Please model this.
Amino acid sequence: MLKPLLAQVKEFKRASILTPVFVVLEVVMELAIPMMMASIIDNGVDKGDMAHVARIGAIMACMALLSLAFGVAAGRLAARASSGFARNLRRSMFANIQTFAFSNLDKYSTSGLITRMTTDVTNVQNAYQMILRMCVRAPSMLVCALFMAFSINAKLSLVFLAAIPFLALCLVFITKNAHAAFLQVFRRYDDLNASVQENLSAIRVVKSYVREDHEVNKFQSACNQVYRLFVKAERTLAFNAPVMQFTVYGCILLLSWLGAKSIVAGGLTTGQLMSLFSYVMNILMSLMMLSMVFVMITMARASADRIVEVLQETPDLKEDPQPLTQAKDGGICFDHVTMRYHAGGKPALRDINLQIAPGETLGVVGGTGSSKSTLVQLIPRLYDAAEGKILVGGQDVRRYDLQALRSQVAMVLQKNTLFSGTIRENLLWGNENATQAQLEQACKAAQAHDFICALPQGYDAMIEQGGTNVSGGQRQRLCLARALLKNPKILILDDSTSAVDMRTDSLIRQGLAQTLPDATKIIIAQRISSVQDCDHILVLNNGEASAYGTHEQLLQESPIYQEVYRSQQKGADEQ
Model:
């Protein structure tokens, strides 16, 4: 687990190394002060030598200033190293997520990935900062203080050696039991974030159905689950403070009793006893710091496991060592293709054989759940076929460089997404170097130019996140224009005109034919009118190719197609 995490320290290695160095120097200066104080009491105050008091006092002041300077330097470097470490973790996680296939993304919820990149990374960042400072300061202080204490009186210092193993055993027991509880806590954080995300993204639906109280109760339930698990974890960690106090006060009592006897017997001076009291506090404070580090690491360990899981996730889609970067044309061939979303699961597509010539337009119809979207998602390798192969331009799609393949395929989905920004910025996703004339040409083909020009800012009008300030039909037309700007060899329209009227749908199809005459087009639609002019039409039923042919052929040969056509014609006649 540590290796993938430490690999993200990168350019902050120097700060990570220098921080412990300054911490050790701070501890050395700090622990030398009690020895100086003992010298002031025994050799200055008791003997009335004020010159010695002034000289040693000046040295103590210098040491205190140096300790302060080293502490400030250590704090600044630790903050820089931990913040940079967290930044690199988020960058690497996000970059790795971008390489995931859909099958990888199916393993995680959106809220879970967000929690890992926010709360979990913050926990690891805080733990890393504590490790750089406290994990170095505490052992350094412990070792140095023990050395100083033994140099003063070895017999009395044995008190510390008895306390350390006792405290260590208690801490191991506490942290072991708390770790399992924190793992459950962070899983519940995913549910909490999912509740918030779902509520905010669907706030219009919530308000239209007056379900605010239901959503509040659902969120409170998720909050209560997190609360109960946190209480369980913190209840275990609560034993940390009593154990520490018992150890501290026990050592102080033993040292006071044994120290007083040594002074009476003449084996210890008053100054030395005071130094021992200072060192006992240093030793026990270092143990207390270690216990705090253990608590933080216990929390961070659960977060680190979740982060490493994302960092080490490898894309299910493997690329060819010597990939092709250009498709000869937009011809597509499905050769005995079977598709499963999960290994050993029920096939979503069964033994599909299909040939689409370059420049041909294929219509795809079928009932809900017939795997129409699954079929087209195999072409740009959003998923891979379990059996058989898909050819684009005469080559297996698995031989292409993924980015090169997807740059030659444009998909417009029924629920396509617009991003916050201007209309122009959204369109430039299709071609970042497109001119204004090209933008207008694509929007005219997609029947979007007129409504854009009607907006006060035109192409510079702002789009809210998800395109919530435009209608469904306008959103679909903008997404279609964005796809046209890619000038793809293959254009896939997955029910992408469902929110526009039939006249606009017809105009869009005419615009596509004029704008991309040589591109292979696949049109998935519920309306027969959207596909009846296609060169061929594929009818899917429960993941199988039920029928294939022209509109006229299917009206003669396909019962499913006939039923859909008659129902739509009847509905049109009744209107």
In short: The chain has a mean pLDDT of 82. The two ends are 65 Å apart (CA to CA). The longest helix spans residues 50-98.
